[in-house]
Specification:
Elements lengths: L1 E2 L4 H17 L3 E7 L3 E2 L2 E2 L8 H16 L8 E7 L2 H9 L5 E5 L12 H9 L4 E5 L4
Parallel strand pairs: 1-2, 2-5, 6-7
Antiparallel strand pairs: 3-4
Helix pairs in contact: 1-2, 3-4
């Protein structure tokens, strides 16, 4: 199971997961989560023509295309789910052998820290978690 949000670290996580899956002859479940923007006490208007699920699907499809050729895409099951990234990843990880996530974290000295999603997954996932960092992070 791998979480994909289109960031460089999530692309690297997907690439790592695909390489590991091929070596073990298993299927990668790639998940992209989306939700309507919310803020405490405020609602954020969403433009009527903007389809967030379609945008999330495009991000996921582009990530899959970037890390594998068309011949090997049958080894990836890609799904877009509505909800927050953490809750969707933890739900998807139930029954998984491994959860793989990228970590955008912070730059500089604080770069040693995990991002909030990866931190939460490491602490609460029902399976082992691999956090993949992008080389420029």
């Amino acid at each position: 199971m791998v979480g994909v949000d289109g960031s460089p670290s999530s692309i690297d996580a997907l690439r790592w997961a695909v390489d590991q899956a091929r070596a073990r002859d298993v299927v990668v479940e790639a998940v992209t989560a989306w939700q309507y923007p919310v803020a405490t006490g405020w609602t954020v208007p969403v433009v009527a023509y903007e389809n967030l699920a379609d945008s999330a699907r495009k991000v996921l499809d582009e990530a899959v295309a970037e890390v594998t050729d068309a011949e090997h895409r049958d080894g990836i099951r890609a799904q877009v789910v509505e909800g927050g990234a953490v809750s969707c990843l933890l739900d998807a990880a139930r029954g998984a052998d491994l959860l793989v996530v990228g970590s955008r974290g912070h730059g500089g000295f604080t770069g040693a820290l995990l991002g909030s999603v990866s931190q939460h997954c490491v602490q609460h996932a029902p399976c082992p978690v691999v956090v993949v960092r992008h080389p420029n992070d």
